[in-house]
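Retro notes - structure team

What went well: the batch runner handled both jobs without manual restarts.
What didn't: labels got mixed up in the shared folder, which is why I'm recording both outputs here explicitly, each with its sequence directly above its tokens.

Job 1
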Amino acid sequence: MSIPRNNKPVTLQIFSILPTLALASSIVFALFLWQGHKGFNLWDEGYLWYGVQRVMLGEVPIRDFTSYDPGRYYWSSALMSLMGDNGIMALRGAVAVFQAIGLFAGLLLIARSTTQRFKNWSSVYLLLSAVTLTVWMFPRHKLFDISLSILLIGALAFLIQNPARLRYFMCGMCVGLVAVFGRNHGVYGVVGSVGVMVWLAINSGNRAGAPRFIEGAGLWFAGVAVGFTPVLLMIWLVPDFAAAFWASIRFLFEVKATNLPLPIPWPWRAPFGSAPLGETIRGLLIGLFFIATVVFGVVAIAWVSWQKSRKKATSPVLVAAAFLALPYAHYAYSRADVGHLAQGIFPLLIGCLALLAARPPKIKWPLALLLCGASLWVTHISHPGWQCVASKQCVSIEISGDELSVPPHVANDVLLLWKLTDEYAPGGRSFIATPFWPGAYALLGKKSPMWETYSLFPRSEDFQREEIERIKITNPGFILVYDWPLDGREELRFRNSRPLIHRYIVDNFELLSHSPNPAYQIYMPRKPM
């Protein structure tokens, strides 16, 4: 299963850089035209959108509002500032640019894994690979995370291809920069890098220009520090950011989780006999993909290590994907749904596609088509463009100056927020939408009275008291509490996860008798006696 190294210049590669970039950009652009205006999510997409808006106004992620790590906010705000637009379509455009970079990197890795012996039909194979990768690129507010996983594969493959001193440093720098966008990706990059450096040390001999393990690790660590410099400078120079940053790390250790777990959808849990055949097949495939992320990691590491011990040439892309597969499988299993599987599956996809690229046609095409077909079957219903086409129920609504096609219940939620704002919070007065609608603030262009805009894990009493003080200062015109037990867990219902805040709301605000949804508890300030 070894793949001959292909060290020929880029101009001699089957697909040079520019055509691959053009292919990736064209696919992302076409996908954006098709479904860029479809769908809207007040939850996770709204969480990203609100944070970008606040950064554009000079606020700092983590310090001034709950957020992911800073990189994605500054990337998006920079591009949106160039566009002169803080709306939802501008945000989606900024994310699509990052998606195109990730897809380009993935296709380039696959293209350069094809040997001259099997160059015929390589353009068709690359197009098939592009479809396979693209259909897994969802949800769109998580395209940063998907692209980061691909870029890490590229960084490790770059080191493996020629483990020179400079490349150790550059690989570490890439890992550090990736951590600026997501600390979890930084951790995965560290784990994968350690595995690769150990692998490089096996039967390494005295290869010219290649440092020994300790020296290489030192150069790599120096690169990590340089890549992570933006956050280090924020810790040093931005007032109060250091305390907020360390508190965000400490909170992860307190809750002992990075996500709210879900039952793993093993293949034998597919709805056999109780659902339509298509849904049953999809459930079976989802379970198989979950298993494949782990099996690929274990088998691939064993294989490339055996090949290295025998001094056999192995594809750098396969080695890089092998050592990143298990770390990203952890992400997929941390909340075992299709959306998180999509964010953890790319080492498996790129590793398999790179491996098949150099196989004989009778092996290459059936397996590549099978992987593409299974991917389409699992993922197509998760794309907003398909959802609107299949349901035929999407309606048009204006959001931040852009006309979107959204499901009726989303349109009703948006209209409700506008109505409540006009009636109870006019003239720039603040409001609260909790615990799941951070997008409400971005939709209406207002600042959240509370630091925490997305309430998932339970919080301490001290934290809740601080939030109550913020509510007192801002005096919101209305409060919308989405009274719903997330994942069916009663302890995650707002009144149970934030009992002090809920008690303050009940004591100081009056529950309106009319609400379009029983789960929407709408409060307005009590009138003085």
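Job 2
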Amino acid sequence: MRVTIGVFGALIAASAVTAQDSPIIHDGEFNFLSAQFGEEWAAQDVRIDSRLTELRDANNGKPPNILYVLIDDVSFGLMGNRAMNYVAGFDTPNINDFASEGLALMRMYTEPSCTPTRTAFLTGSHPVRAGQEEVKVALVGEGLAGEAVTIAEVLKQSGYNTAHVGKWHQGDIEESFPHNQGFDVAFFPVHQQVQLSLMTPEAAAAGNLNGWHPSTQSSEFAIDQRFKPYGLVTGLEAKAGEQAREVGLEAGEEWTQEHYERMNATYQRQVLEQLERLAGEEEPFFLQYWPLYPLNFTSSDQQRSRNGGFMADKMEQLDDWFGDLMAKVDELGVAENTLVVFMADNGIFKQYSPNSGMIELIYRGGKAEHLEGGVRVDAFVRWPQAIEGGSYAGDIIHVSDLYTTLARVAGGMEFIPRDRVIDGVDQTALLLEGEGNSRRDYVYIYEGPVLRSIVKQEFKMHMPAPGVPGAAAPVFNILRDPRETTPDIGGSLWSGASFQDMAKRHAKMIAKYPHRPIGKDEPYGGIENLRPESELARKTFASWQDE
């Protein structure tokens, strides 16, 4: 599809009209804030629209290219800062340089684990609203539903060319694959690093995998030969409208750490290739790169970092690759009008700490937890034409906000669906006018389907257990107690009713717009060259589904 400059202008105009006629449905807390600040925000939006128009005019009517890099399991403070590099014992000079060239989002919240965070980004809503509540390891016959409207689909309708490279982990069914969710091309594994780096003979030998690999125990009295995952599909490549094809593993071949290393190197090569291809086309592009590193479960023959942890070392490798990616952006001459976001998806995989080399710093907790260490991450945004380099923002922002913000920057607000709650708040004002311009001062934090805590300003309530009154729920001042160790129940007694009101506003919108079901289908559909062992795994899975 070729979109002319004139069409972009029409899209922008249509977006403004449509957005006024049919507003985006937001959560109750945003509506509560909007009732207080709506007029002020509307006046600011006039300035923002004018600035976006100026930026497009300076680029022949084109909105910015968008490059989104999301990495796995790195808690706040572990990258982007030379001093913290010294503390942690591994270096990220390229990420540090990048952080200094744009806006550092000092209070970015995500979901507690990788699949939910990615769903929040893709759909602009808390993942529980799409049934994507948790990380899945093996065959489940579930995934992101076809009725989801992803940011890739929004940008595609806005005239962008789209490509995905790297981790996906949104399900093992055909409708959930990226080339069926708005991406023109996609290079991705079906599952994630538990399969790709942990379920290997090398991880078993390293003592990081117990019971699954036959080398770890005899299992002489095992009867069920289908208990342990087997025949899992690894890496796929696909184009929109076509079937996917598995690459990198032959029938009967055992997946090893060498395959995993090769897969990572392949994705790095492919993201550079896709960047070069997209930069040479007339349309703006959305390129999404979700590396598998630094998540890793074995050590190399010689570790390179001072830390020496098996994930810390891969963090240094990833930093090299990110530096190569940014150098390519510069080489292709698209840096000025390319909005680049670099961030992590959640906190460290602390079950493997400290041997992984990834450690808790200021915030307590990690992956799968609602504590700050599980959901606070480093996040940096660079857009040289529009964002002041070396700037910081202490405002609260949630990963779902990127959905609405990127849609507005791209001129595609009209393509955001109006039949469901969009938790993502438009944060364009924060990007363009800097610190103090966020339109949220709150976050709801889920663990799976359960609301576990609510953040409001510098306060955080851990939700009370059933039967416990809100006044007795633990409340923390995150600035004074970043590790959430000393609840201030007495001193924050005033907040109990306010937090309960927030929970009620949230629940009322759920009642009005119920959660949508997760997509369900036979796993591994739409793959043209399934290996026999994958066919067997799928057949075994299907054998008991209707019982």
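One thing worth noting from job 2: DSSP finds 15 helices and 19 strands in the chain.
We'll revisit the folder naming next retro.
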